[in-house]
Design goal:
12 strands, 13 helices, globular
Amino acid sequence: MNKMIIQVMTHPFGASGERPRHVLEQHGWEIRYNPYGRRLKANEVLDLVRDAHGLVAGTEQYTPEVMEAARNLKVISRVGVGLDNIPFQICREREIVVTYTPEAPADGAAELTVGHILNLLRRTHESDRSIREGAWNRYLGFLIREVKIGILGVGRIGKRVVKLLSSFKPDLYGCDLVPDFEFGIEHNLRWVSKEELFQVCNLVTIHVPLNRETHHLVSSQEMKSMPPGSYLINLARGGIIDEPPLIEALNSNHLRGAAIDVFENEPYEGALTRFDNVILTAHMGASAHQSRYLMELGAAEDCVRVLSAERPLNPISEGDLAR
């Protein structure tokens, strides 16, 4: 077998366990790691992919220019589940295999979602800030069972959020393209349309993929239809929420607060940083040791399998792109 070149684009890689690196390195191929120690910029992506046969990819963008430079490429193995940065039409035309790790980050994202729900409702982030500023503000918040919680996208992560919330006896509403009615009955989840979800629920958490249909899916109309004093949480993809209407809703106090983990432009430096009632996290839904380890291991194994002419365990299908 010819000597393959694998470029690891994401960072960190191997910090949560050595096995993903071992899986890549055991064949004697040339393994190159991200030399910058951070998320790659566009020009850096272009430079790194030129002679690689396999990419262990993160959230960096794979533009047509990048793909044109990667003439030897056989596989893009995504560390994670988001697919919006991969040009699938180009990959299909060139028979480049694309894989991902759909289950590995789900628990981490679901647990962080519940953490954000608790922090927003009990205003712990505001109390922490006030104490550091020399005040002693005992903010009045809400119990989870006092609010109507809407889950926009009840798939891998959305279902886990529902299960984690179940012990709080919440009032839950779900919206999904393909509702799992049996799951809804089991977890006392009421299925509603997107319009009704925002009209009824005073806390909505988003768990849908980013594609052409979901870009700015949550915009001015949805936010204005929410009950006054509502909350919005996004751990899916930044492009799903239209940011200017979100800022307007916060400025007018129509929204009581928000928790945002993902942004259209990352690293984020925008207007949301001015709001004390907004929790901002740095795209860290999957940043738990076990989640990260399983993501890296799955991506490494599938990259090696494809370059060894074996079938990957988690290839991307047309159905995955539609969900």
